[in-house]
Amino acid sequence: MERASCLLLLLLPLVHVSATTPEPCELDDENFRCVCNFSEPHPDWSEAFQCVSAVEVEIRVGGLSLEPFLTRVDPDADPRQYADTVKALRVRRLTVGAAQVPAQLLVGALRVLAYSRLQELTLEDLEITGTMPPLPLEATGLALSSLRLRNVSWATGRSWLAELQQWLKPGLKVLSIAQAHSPAFSCEQVRAFPALTSLDLSDNPGLGERGLIAALCPHKFPALQNLALRNTGMETPTGVCAALTAAGVQPHSLDLSHNSLRATANPSAPRCMWSSALNSLNLSFAGLEQVPKGLPAKLRVLDLSCNRLNRRPRPDELPQVDNLTLDGNPFLVPGTALPQEGSMNSGVVPACARSTLSVGVSGTLVLLQGARGFA
């Protein structure tokens, strides 16, 4: 017992040091997820070696510039020299956030990752500086299934998607672009996304229905099935219908939740015929006091939950629908106050209000070292 007490006393300083000076990288016990937060002014990048065995890797750099990595770039280096090392990595999902990244370094990383088994890439809170060089003839594109971008700024303006697209193989299935500094793309430069089935443009409140046409790039998404437009400044379902028609997009599922929708369209707006492909429409959290006009004639799923409906909609106000959701509307919750003009919260069921707040405005070092050698 006495020896055990002495051992604990010896371990106390180590526990104290660990608590006051946390390591920048943490790998879970299953060697599955590794998270690095390099917030120090002069981080020790070698700590990221802990992540070489992880399947899911997240790296945040505290807003630091990665430009110093460019001092050792060899533009003529052949990335194939790293192929065997990169293929041995287990990483399938990679998140990089909170950094200033030279475009040349980003391209270098993408060229290395092209030899990996990476499937999902997420870029968050990044500032991409400089222009991206063209894809070399011998380069292999990155075979991603999912690409998610949130609050990423590009020095190249509207042409950024076309420039990034050339470094990707055409098999991308999921694309998410949130808080974009330029949600409209240079459509004449963008190539088609032949395999893309899910496009999420949520949390771009300045997009609006006019901007939606420019963002969808007509006839560039022939396989699109799921389109999410939460918190994007949409005004009426009819206006969205017109934008989709102009862009030649026919999604099966459309999410318009978390927009302040009007129930009636502009009287001068022409009637819009929805594509028969659409079978699921989400109009939850839209502040609706009545069912909007101009909905598709037939739907499999219609979600009107967490709106301000004070009575059950009549059958003649609804499309033909198999699965209708009305949860969280005032008429289903006794005692809920009626909406009052000028009040954003009156008439909202408390559970829905809490949900709205929760949504909000909606081998890694080897990779970095390899990216130094080419761009």
Automatic annotation (TrEMBL):
Membrane-protein topology: Lipid-anchor; GPI-anchor
SUPFAM superfamilies assigned to the protein according to its UniProt record, in alphabetical order: L domain-like
PROSITE patterns: LRR
Gene3D superfamilies from the UniProt entry: Ribonuclease Inhibitor
Keyword presence, Zinc-finger: no
Disulphide-bonded residues: C25-C36, C34-C51, C187-C217, C241-C272
Signal peptide limits: 1-19
GO molecular function annotation: lipopolysaccharide binding; lipopolysaccharide immune receptor activity; lipoteichoic acid binding; molecular carrier activity
Matches recorded under Pfam families: LRR_1 (PF00560), LRR_6 (PF13516)
GO biological process: cellular response to diacyl bacterial lipopeptide; cellular response to lipoteichoic acid; cellular response to triacyl bacterial lipopeptide; inflammatory response; innate immune response; positive regulation of endocytosis; positive regulation of interleukin-8 production; positive regulation of lipopolysaccharide-mediated signaling pathway
GO CC annotations on file: external side of plasma membrane; extracellular space; Golgi apparatus; lipopolysaccharide receptor complex; membrane raft
Transmembrane segments: none
Subcellular location: Cell membrane; Golgi apparatus; Membrane raft; Secreted
Main location: membrane
InterPro entries reported for this sequence: Leu-rich_rpt, LRR_dom_sf, Monocyte_diff_Ag_CD14
Record has Cell membrane as a keyword: yes
Keyword annotations: Cell membrane, Disulfide bond, Glycoprotein, Golgi apparatus, GPI-anchor, Immunity, Inflammatory response, Innate immunity, Leucine-rich repeat, Lipoprotein, Membrane, Repeat, Secreted, Signal
Quaternary organization: Belongs to the lipopolysaccharide (LPS) receptor, a multi-protein complex containing at least CD14, LY96 and TLR4. Interacts with LPAR1.
Free-text function comment from the UniProt entry: Coreceptor for bacterial lipopolysaccharide. In concert with LBP, binds to monomeric lipopolysaccharide and delivers it to the LY96/TLR4 complex, thereby mediating the innate immune response to bacterial lipopolysaccharide (LPS). Acts via MyD88, TIRAP and TRAF6, leading to NF-kappa-B activation, cytokine secretion and the inflammatory response.
Protein name, as recorded: Monocyte differentiation antigen CD14
Taxonomic classification: Eukaryota, Metazoa, Chordata, Craniata, Vertebrata
